[in-house]
Amino acid sequence: MGKARRIDCAASLYPTLVKVDSLRADHPAFQAAHPVNQPDSEAE
Known about the structure:
By secondary structure, the protein is mostly helical. It has helices at 2-6, 15-25, 28-33.
């Protein structure tokens, strides 16, 4: 879903993916694994 947001894809066409993405975004394990939270990240 990150790539879909970057290229401005119409995510509303995929409601199940939008729901899963929103649930995953709130989970601590996924937050910790996000690329910007890695020690070698070059955060934007």
